[in-house]
Amino acid sequence: MDKAKRKAIIAGNWKMNKTPKEATALLNAITPLVKDADCEVIACVPYVDLAAAIEATAGTNVKIGAENCHWAESGAFTGEISTGMLKEIGVEYVVLGHSERRQYFGETDETVNKRTKAALAAGLKPIVCVGELLWERECDITEEVIARQIKLDLWDVTEEELKNVVIAYEPVWAIGTGKTATSDQAEEVCAFIRAQLAKLYNQDAADAVTIQYGGSMNDGNADELLSKTNVDGGLIGGASLVAEKFAAIVKAASK
Ligand code: PGA
């Protein structure tokens, strides 16, 4: 399948930034700039911003995502948010397995898998993040790390469910560091991810999956990264907090 047939997706990952009022203001600045986008545009925002974000983007082409979710439907999990809670207010996407969750909050491939299964069962579309640490790249085990994450994070996800999964390749050394993977490095790993998906499912199923690159993607390097065959979009941290920069990335993906 050629790249043009896959859905290009640009998603902002706001992380722990913006209050609800600030979220409304930022989205009010973003929505007019991206209204003609020829790609899917998503803003993944903190839990307390979700309601304001959904209101601010009603009737626009911007979709809203959460930054995590729990796997249980309800119960004694103080501080957690369920998929049903997200669904009920109109959330469509959810970022799972982000490296900051893995690094600071004890996220493992097992819990990423549980969250992914739960999100899919609830009708949410997970953006599953994978990526190697700098040390792992230096030890030349990037492919082993990625193969393991893909296999475990998607364990028991059916081919039908895979249609609603987005994969984000985010080399951990490139996140928030200003150090971007070269477009060739991004392409190499995104192509490797697709090959793994083909092994686990089949080539047609793999060809249909949107694979994003994330890690210091910005308005200056998006064109080059998105020109690569297997880079179908971006998961954008820092640059998603500045309306003009985020809009420029959306424009690059719309070509
Ligand atoms: P960054 O973050 O664009 O600020 O590097 C990307 C991400 O963590 O998703």
How would you sum up this structure, described in words?
The protein has 255 residues and is of the alpha/beta class. The protein is built from twelve helices and eight strands. The chain has helices at residues 20-33, 50-57, 83-89, 99-104, 109-122, 134-138, 142-153, 159-162, 183-200, 203-207, 222-226, 243-253; strands at residues 9-13, 40-44, 62-66, 93-96, 125-130, 166-169, 211-214, 233-236. It has an eight-stranded parallel barrel with strand order 1-2-3-4-5-6-7-8, surrounded by five helices. Helix 7 crosses helix 9. The radius of gyration is 17 Å and the shape is globular. The model has no long low-confidence stretch (mean pLDDT 97). The site of 2-phosphoglycolic acid has 13 residues, from strand 8.
Short note summarizing the structure:
This protein is of the alpha/beta class. It is built from twelve helices and eight strands.
Rounded average pLDDT: 97
Coarse structural class: alpha/beta
Runs in which pLDDT lies below 50 for 5 or more consecutive residues are: none
Profile the largest sheet.
8 strands, parallel, barrel
Spell out the helices and strands N to C.
Answer: EHEHEHEHHEHHHEHHEHEH
Output the radius of gyration: 17 Å
Strand order in space, largest sheet: 1-2-3-4-5-6-7-8
Task: Identify every distinct bound molecule in the structure, by name, code or SMILES.
Answer: 2-phosphoglycolic acid
Number of helices: 12
From the spread of the alpha carbons, the general shape counts as globular
Number of strands: 8
Q: Into which percent range does the helicity of residues fall?
A: 40-55%
Distance between the termini: 18 Å
Strand portion: 5-15%
Quaternary organisation: single chain
